[in-house]
Amino acid sequence: MTKNWFLNYINKKKADPAPLAVFRIGFGLMMAISIIRFWSYGWIELLYLNPKFHFKYFGFEWVKVYGNITYLIFLLCLISAIFVALGYRYKLSIVTFFLTFTYIELMDKTTYLNHYYFISSLSFLMCFLPAGKYFSLDNYFSKKNYKSIPKWSIDSLKLFICLIYFFAGIAKLNSDWLFEAQPISIWFKSKYDLPVIGENLMQFPWFHYLVSWCGMLYDIFIPFLLLYSRTRILAFIFVIIFHVLTKIFFPPIGMFPFIMIVSALIFFSPKFHNKIISKLRRLLFVKSSNLKELNLKSSNYALLIVALFLTLQTLLPLRHLLYPGELFWNEEGYRFSWRVMLMEKRGYSTFKIEDSVTKKFFYVDNQDFLTPFQEKQMSFQPDFILEYAHFLGDHFKNQGHKNLKVYVDSFVALNGRPSQRFVDPTADLYQIEESFKHKNWIIPFKHEIKGF
Asked: Which tens digit of pLDDT belongs to each residue from 410-424?
């Protein structure tokens, strides 16, 4: 019975293409605006061209920053985003966007944000969805119009968004977030300058707890409320309120709140999306043409890749269970798991270069090699510390130093707690290679944070 239902769903279940077309348009426009915003603020130069050294993701050390060619990569990313919105050579455009955007994010790990990872993941998923088959320039030039698409192509987007919210919600089921209102309490106390609410609300502990609990409940339950037709409008109102407040409380979060608001539209009925397209037709003076109506068949290879992608997105947030110790402290399995704004870490790390034979040593001034932003991120993230130690070792080895050992004196404070030593000061980091193994040179966390 289950097998028959699944085969019937894959091969016969069809859907109106309008929701996917509206999603494509919204995604493309949001991405184009985001890239223009990033460029106009001078962040290309600040984050990619100015640094002397770039932190790399494990396995992606080959991704380089090629000077002013970086602007060309951003330009290609921008053009492809616009073409995605227009539905012009959609397949080529979305693949180009995915490759250029992801390459940009891989150039320096320092810039990692959950919503950048969301965009890369979403654009990869869209490479295998027929989002250019309706209300697009491709339709206009091919003289073909698709009246239906496989239902799984829309459901896969819904499932992906639900996974993000759900994992973000259960990650908040921890003692710091719920019973200490951390790190919300730290952040909100610094927001006294916000108009009206800065002094009247954001300084009070009860408000910190209210926001923490509401954030947890929102993330866990909003997918179910969006999926259920009777609560969908109310849920969308919650989506707007939540993300607008997020933008007010945390302005540096950029376009992410608006991207999530637009993404939530995919849960609405085809009738709703057809109204949007009708309004766009009138706005753009585009008449509904009598093009050849076609049914789009499922692609087995596309379905297989999408299924593998969604399975991976379900497993990746769970990989931290394979590591011992406190996740927020060790950060092993923390990235790519939709753990959004759960911790506030501060640290400082002083590196010592020693000749193992003569025992002579000297300390490194991090400002000679890192930007302030890079130094801040490096100071409390283990893989950053290890990579930087290797960079320093190679740098001074090339200068003629011999018998090198690299040590670090590192202290980190987590979620308002007093700082404690972070890395074993006797560990020669230059001899330790990066891997997926547990980093046993991290000193265990002295406290306990209960939760998932």
From this structure: 999 999 999 999 999
